[in-house]
Amino acid sequence: MDTLFTLPDPATLYRALLERDPAFEGRALVGVTSTGIFCRLTCPAKKPRPENCRWFDGPAAALAAGFRPCRRCHPLGAQAEGDPVIAPLLAALRDDPARRWSETDVAALGLDPSTVRRAFRRQFGMTFLELARQMRLRAGTRALSAGAPVIEAQLEAGFDSASGFREAFARLFGAPPQALRTGAGLSADWIDTPLGGMIAVGDAETLHLLEFVDGKGLAAELRALSKGAQGIALGRTPAIDRTETELAAFFAGRPDGFTVPLTLHGTPFQRRVWEELRRIPPGETISYATLAGRIGQPTATRAVARANGANQIAIVVPCHRVIGADGSLTGYAGGIWRKQALIEAERRLAAARHGDSALTQGA
Hints:
Elements: H1 10-19, E1 29-32, E2 37-40, E3 53-56, H2 59-64, E4 68-69, H3 86-95, H4 103-108, H5 113-124, H6 128-145, H7 150-156, H8 162-173, E5 186-191, E6 198-202, E7 207-212, H9 218-228, E8 232-234, H10 238-251, H11 268-277, E9 286-287, H12 288-294, H13 301-309, E10 322-323, H14 336-362
Parallel strand pairs: 2-4, 5-8, 9-10
Antiparallel strand pairs: 1-2, 1-3, 5-6, 6-7
């Protein structure tokens, strides 16, 4: 949300709410006093009476005022969902995830393909066609995890060519589908999040890897894990289920924290860095130099930065909370846009919790 935006008068905002005007997406939210919930102005829920509306320029203000985020329009989620260019295409992906899209299909919807490319890159770090391909792979992965034959998973994913499916799958997992169908020491499965799909790898008790599916180093990380664990099979474990539950709580704004046990694959130095990352409170950021100082090696800033980049358990080991000394958002394997989204969401939630604490103390 742009906190520098000056809200117009309530009558204008209420009219925009009734019309579900996307022009105010990312600029205004409505809090409904009768329900205690705040929403985007594009929310499809039943509209409140004007006297029950409070207007906010951002989620932090709404949360601090005691309102809870709506579960229909997800006002803490990506603002892209309210974008008039992006929203219809996201809906189309949800309705038919196996469809093979082309720019001709996009143009047939009355949308300019170049505008769509820019909008999706800005919000998701990838084009719409790349996201559509990712969703098709998700369908194939889910089918294989459920025990479907490879040919069935290929068709479920919308691939006419068996070789095309094998190649796309191997780019993601570092191995063809057949190589992930036998008994192995670790299991891998797809987890959906508001910031995109993630691959989780775990044994019965601990989480070994959690990365966004479009991460450039994912296939290499999976191959390395596979060698050390006598292979990786597609499927679920209690650790993966627990990770999915805790991620859902995290993105829903519940400050429960991550308690899933971890197996950290790295050198002793890297593990020290990763353990220190887990001590950074949500809503706070530190520099690489500060992180180096905290592990007792103030001259090892570059080594700390490399260790931070080598972390392969995203979000749970919060490498996104480390930024440049000048406050800039430096490299993040999941994409700078995701790093910014995570930092902003955690700051808003921390501010809301601080406000709730102050109110409690005042009472």
